[in-house]
Write a structure and sequence with these properties.
This protein has about 325 residues and is of the alpha/beta class. The chain has 12 helices and 9 strands. The chain has a 9-stranded mixed sheet with strand order 3-2-1-4-5-6-9-7-8, with helices on both faces. It is globular. Bound molecules: alpha-D-ribofuranose and calcium ion. Alpha-D-ribofuranose (RIB) binds next to helix 1, helix 6 and helix 11.
Length: about 325
């Protein structure tokens, strides 16, 4: 039986690569998209999610609009320089013919989890605001959620949105602290693994050769994101599929090596948004981590097999 997955997203070029990959994967059933501020405003991310599903001919999948601001600060302004002026490159999406459902993302999450106790996987690939709000409204969902698969954080490597922090966590550290502190099974797939994977020009050519409208969208959206990577990092070939690498956990977890550690999130100054694992041999000294649940942290990935997996699934989209 495919696992039911609810994707919480801020699309975002790598978000649409990830969602398209799961739509092409028999291991999972995507039961909804919830949107959140992050790469763009929540209005733009919601429009992009609806647009993406139209292009994918999957308007049967509901979209619930989520938080426009992080829990404790205003929206940080997004990353148009990475994802393009409309978040999907410079395609300049205008209208969409569908609308989000009437309830907000947090209520949608709560209702979905309670409808299928112990089955639903939450897969956040943007800031963790909606999950934190859902937990605050209904703490009982923690024990009813099958797994929380997070793209975010950096355990043993640099950040990408500051020297200390990864973007999804820096965009709402207070929410991340709540989500990593709740008593539910969390897998953190952050920059330790996602930064290791690239879809090279050769991979992207294979995807771009696809003939569906979705392949055209991926081709055009990826071009902007690829240009960002190749200009920012001398010698880089292609782009980094952060969100698809993380969600591939739901297809083939054997591609990762993991450890278990409790995590605290930096709240202050230079370390704001850093995800800090506690090493077991130091635990007795480190009171702030005591009593926190263990998070499964991905530390290594088979980068070549991962790029092949993502590419193969995206090439097969619609077939
Ligand atoms: O740091 C990578 C993450 O930040 C991805 O989810 C990407 O979409 C951006 O939001
Ligand atoms: Ca994202």
């Amino acid at each position: 039986m495919p696992r039911p997955v609810l994707i919480d997203t801020d699309p975002g070029v790598d978000d649409v690569l990830a969602i398209a990959m799961l739509l092409a994967s028999p291991e999972v059933e995507v039961i909804g998209l919830t949107t959140v501020h992050g790469n763009m405003s929540v209005d733009v991310c919601t429009r992009n999610a609806l647009y993406f599903l139209e292009v994918a001919s999957r308007t049967d999948i509901p979209v619930a609009r989520g938080a426009g601001d992080p829990i404790a600060m205003p929206f940080r302004g997004g990353a148009a320089f990475v994802h393009g002026p409309d978040g999907l490159g410079d395609r300049m999406v205008d209208g969409v013919s569908t609308t989000p459902v009437g309830e907000d993302a947090a209520d949608f999450i709560i209702r979905s989890v309670r409808a299928r106790p112990g089955e639903v996987v939450l897969a956040p690939i943007g800031p963790l605001t909606n999950l934190a709000v859902a937990l605050e409204r209904d703490p009982g969902i923690a024990e009813l959620t099958a797994e929380v698969v997070v793209m975010g954080g950096n355990a043993y490597c640099d950040g990408n949105a500051s020297p200390a922090a990864e973007a999804n966590i820096l965009n709402d550290p207070e929410a991340a602290e709540i989500v990593f502190g709740a008593d539910w099974p969390v897998v953190m797939l952050g920059l330790d693994v996602t930064d290791e994977v690239s879809l090279t020009g050769a991979h992207l050519d294979r995807i771009a050769a696809g003939t569906t409208p979705m392949h055209a969208l991926l081709r055009e959206a990826s071009a902007f994101y690829q240009r960002f990577h190749e200009e920012a990092i001398p010698g880089y070939d292609g782009l980094c599929p952060h969100d698809a690498t993380a969600l591939a956990w739901l297809i083939d977890p054997s591609l990762f090596e993991v450890i278990e550690r409790p995590i605290r999130v930096g709240m202050e100054g230079l370390g704001r948004g850093k995800t800090w694992p506690a090493e077991p041999y130091r635990m007795p000294e480190y009171e702030p981590w005591r009593g926190r649940p263990e998070v499964t942290i991905a530390t290594q990935v088979d980068a070549s097999a991962m790029a092949d997996l993502i590419t193969t699934r995206l090439v097969a989209f619609g077939s």
